[in-house]
Amino acid sequence: MSQSLDRGLSLLTALAGGASTLDELAGELGVHKSTVLRLLRTLETQHFVQREGTRHYRLGSALFDLASRALEGRDVRRESAPALAALNERTGHTVHLATYEDGEVVYVDKYEGRHSVRMYSRVGKRAPLHCTAVGKVLVAALPPAQREKIAHGLDYPPLTANTITTAEAYLAELARVAERGYAVDDAEHEDFIHCIAAPVRGPGGTVLAAVSLSVPKVLLDHDGLLALLPDLRAAAEDASLHNGWTR
């Protein structure tokens, strides 16, 4: 670990005990005040540290946001794991769990299919909202005004011949997803893969994540993909119950 990184992490740990002055932090870390001040200024620009008055520093909002998102992601992943593993075992196809973060899909779990075709996805990788089934489920769960804002802020790169390329078409698709309770990626993200997705809910019905089944088109046609909907919905409901949702 680099010395600066080590000192920066030690600084955050020191601030976890409460607001401190520059002199107090320098004494606790055992380094010169100029070094601590340089670290504080860097952390402050990224909102990991904030100044309190003229002399004190405390932990900033970015750290709490980071911790909150990490805990939420870990909880939904852990609680959904049995249902996702069972779905993967039952169907033999690739299963994803994804969440919404900063205008993109983030894959937080993945179970590989038993077939030889491999997808580009991996845990931690980001994907577009407009052409993935999980993305459609996550955005469709948002209030209409937020959907509108997101839809009109996307770029809509045409990744395949089937990709949605306008905000109007995307909003119409989101309305269909919200009405029927599932989404389809009809080879819109990758031209040899199609996918279905459903919401994973928590307390009060809040959508925490989306679970999907992704299948190579050479293995299943569109009707065959939709025939997997009962399995997908059962898994999504099971995962939701484990995350605190009640019917």
From TrEMBL:
It holds the Pfam family IclR_C. Residues 2-61 form the HTH iclR-type domain. The keyword Nucleotidyltransferase does not apply. SUPFAM superfamilies: GAF domain-like (SSF55781), Winged helix' DNA-binding domain (SSF46785). Keywords: DNA-binding, Transcription, Transcription regulation. The keyword Oxidoreductase does not apply. Coiled coil: none annotated. InterPro entries: GAF-like_dom_sf, HTH_MetabolicPath_Reg, Tscrpt_reg_IclR_C, Tscrpt_reg_IclR_N, WH-like_DNA-bd_sf, WH_DNA-bd_sf. Residues 62-245 form the IclR-ED domain. Signal peptide: none annotated. This is IclR family transcriptional regulator. It comes from Amycolatopsis deserti.
